[in-house]
Automatic annotation (TrEMBL):
The gene is Cmbl_0. GO terms for molecular function: hydrolase activity. The lineage of its organism: Eukaryota, Metazoa, Chordata, Craniata, Vertebrata. This is Carboxymethylenebutenolidase homolog. Belongs to the dienelactone hydrolase family. It is found in: Cytoplasm, Cytosol. One of its GO terms (cellular component) is cytosol. It comes from the Eukaryota. Residues 29-241 form the Dienelactone hydrolase domain.
């Protein structure tokens, strides 16, 4: 019996009234939210296994847009079914084979082109959660067009090439995330010190489990709230510093 890697309850989601709208970009659907004023700065949000329609991720898109960025969350699953909380964890490895977070380059290129040509974006950052955090780690190694990245509890584990980041990258982890051990975090830190030529940051938030940072306010436990809010502030600060 595989432990459920997502300790936060995805069953009873409170309804979230989104501020943005959906668009079609080439072969991708995407959720976009714009700030109230015009800007040439944008952020791509990479969703977790629950997909681009999940209320928590749309909440994050709106939150980032509120800080002055054209923010977009494309469907990186390209219309295929996201994971759901009723699926069986035994099937997860097979599902992952068809949803590889390191195969997001084509979609990223489509979205970058859209942001530059249709939205007038000149500087573009990327933020991703869990599955999306792995995608961000991958993209920050491959795509120089992304001026900064924030990976929340997602790392690429099995390649020696994974430390040569192209642009500033911030890794956020929960101390009690049982999908990413502290050993893996220390290894990442150690190797980045050796190989990474750009600014990077690693931060571990006390007592937090996998998925902690994308909870909506009404779904937060009081003890976790300060850490969730701190992680979000840190995420926004990193984006503001480099994008």
């Amino acid at each position: 019996q595989m432990a459920d890697p997502f300790l936060y309850n995805t069953g009873d989601r409170s309804h979230y009234g989104c501020l943005g709208h959906e668009v079609q970009i080439e072969h991708l659907k995407a959720y976009v939210c714009r700030p109230s004023f015009s800007t040439d700065k944008a952020v791509i949000v990479v969703h977790d296994v629950f997909g681009w329609r999940f209320p928590d991720i749309r909440y994050i898109v709106d939150l980032i847009a509120g800080h002055g960025y054209i923010t977009i969350c494309p469907d990186f699953f390209k219309g295929t079914e996201p994971w759901t909380s009723t699926d069986h964890w035994a099937d997860f490895p097979d599902w992952m084979k068809n949803h590889d977070p390191m195969k997001v380059d084509k979609e990223a290129d489509v979205v970058l082109k859209y942001l530059k040509e249709q939205c007038g974006a000149k500087k573009i950052g990327v933020v991703g959660f869990s599955w999306g955090g792995m995608a961000v780690h991958h993209l920050m190694l491959k795509n120089p067009q992304l001026t900064a990245g924030v990976s929340l509890y997602g790392i690429i584990r099995d390649s020696e090439e994974r430390y040569r980041l192209l642009n500033p990258t911030f890794f956020i982890f929960g101390e009690k995330d049982h999908t990413i051990s502290l050993d893996q975090i220390f290894l990442l830190e150690d190797k980045l010190k050796q190989y990474c030529k750009v600014p990077y940051k690693i931060k571990v938030y006390p007592g937090q489990v996998h998925g902690f940072a994308q909870l909506k306010p009404e779904d937060m436990k009081p003890d976790d709230k300060p850490y969730i809010e701190e992680a979000r502030r840190d995420m926004i600060d990193w984006i503001k510093m480099f994008v």
